[in-house]
Amino acid sequence: MNLIYLLDLCAVAVCAITATLEARRRELDLFGVIVVAVISGIGGGTVRDILLGRLPVYWIHDPVYVVVGTVAGTLTFFLGRYLKLPKNFFLIPDAVGLALFTVIGTSIALKLDAPWLIASLMGVITGVFGGVIRDILCNEVPLIFRTDIYATASLAGALLLIALDHFDVSQNIAMLWAMASIIAIRLAAIRWHIHLPHLRSDI
Amino acid sequence: MNLIYLLDLCAVAVCAITATLEARRRELDLFGVIVVAVISGIGGGTVRDILLGRLPVYWIHDPVYVVVGTVAGTLTFFLGRYLKLPKNFFLIPDAVGLALFTVIGTSIALKLDAPWLIASLMGVITGVFGGVIRDILCNEVPLIFRTDIYATASLAGALLLIALDHFDVSQNIAMLWAMASIIAIRLAAIRWHIHLPHLRSDI
Amino acid sequence: MNLIYLLDLCAVAVCAITATLEARRRELDLFGVIVVAVISGIGGGTVRDILLGRLPVYWIHDPVYVVVGTVAGTLTFFLGRYLKLPKNFFLIPDAVGLALFTVIGTSIALKLDAPWLIASLMGVITGVFGGVIRDILCNEVPLIFRTDIYATASLAGALLLIALDHFDVSQNIAMLWAMASIIAIRLAAIRWHIHLPHLRSDI
Fold first, then answer.
1. Which sequence spans correspond to the domains of chain C?
2. What is the least distance, in Å, from the CA of A105 to any CA of chain B?
3. What's the number of CA atoms in the CB half-sphere (13 Å) around residue B160?
């Protein structure tokens, strides 16, 4: 469990860092950046907890999550202008974070006896809703509604986890396979520009 | 109760269909469309359940709602370009859905001993908040804040339901009258272009 | 307690009034204005209650809050065009409202044994999230993410309250000092144009 907790905090940090870099295009002050960074990191799990009735939400009694998001956002805010990172530097950490959030969210919902469809949905919400709230706060149509296979990778991994769980595969193995499939689908989609069909706006 | 459940699912489907048609103007991919469609269908009841503390929210243990929203959104996504429906095709189903969501939301709040004012508000929230969240996700000022009598029809019906309930009219009769009044007010407002006063922006 | 309750209602009214004046620039009808006004007044406390699991949220069984917000919004809607108030008329009531919401939110979280960092966060959320939701509904990047010391004043006051509480200062004295510090910081920031650092968008 300790490894998952550590990875979870790393995923929060990665979310906060990418959110801060995204927020650059907006005229946000330090406070705004930190709020957007923290919400990106913990927003998905918060929405999941509220919908499932796991209240108070998970970070109320464990402030480490908020601290990690705040520190990551603040450091990126001040160091971001000096660091010239390659554009795709965060693609792999981001895919790992998506995978981790998804399997954690799905597992939690399964433990609460949610039906499998809802459990997979909770995995997707945990994985992607931090970014959705970030984009709403920044006044943009959420990126994941417009862009390549992201939530779809999360959904596929959540369904795989549920299937493996159904056939009594041990939990650790199931989580590893689910995470590996999410990361693989996500990176493959980026590498070969795989998209879902778009609504044609000319109709 | 079975009839109400069936009508409720129909209302979710209508919401999902109209949301998908609305989403056309945006560059959403299939995933984005389905999310917007499902949220339009179940968002109002979800917000009501969270505010009232009825957790987990109603669709967690009954995935049929999510399935209906997903199927309706997906079919509309793929068939929408071939079907040329008259522009006002959904006005009546939409009014029926508004009426149904409103009376369901109001009834639930009354059963939890909410004061009448709050119960009517829960009816309105159940009726209109799916659309509000849809518009926020699509990065627009929610339509109901700008447009003709919509939430007002919902509020009038909710208050009628509460009044009839107060005078011990049987629940089924009260719900029918309330729904009829919402549909009548909504359609009358559309037919004769009745609006609430607007803020003049030139002041 | 009665004085705090009364001040709380006043703060709701002030929020509703300023939200209505803000909403002028948007083409909202009467219903939209009232919704935006009420949400500005009670939104912060609502988000706090949901995150902390204090459900149903505080205004469900005390409709006075909704009534005050509705009346304040409606009166401002109709009288706003005749009243020519000086532009900074609401700066002081607004600062008092921020201070009051903050100390109420922080106190509630402390009573629920939240860690001090989370308690201060709940104070800030209570103080500023009504305005955040208002701006999201009006399709704008929330003002507090872009503007001068506002949430920062709230945070400073919340931390002071927690420190005084820790050293067993009596609650009333602690709340007064915390409120005074929030009001002082807020007004000083306005008077001398003190800002947090902004992200430079040219990097």
1. 2-191
2. 14
3. 21
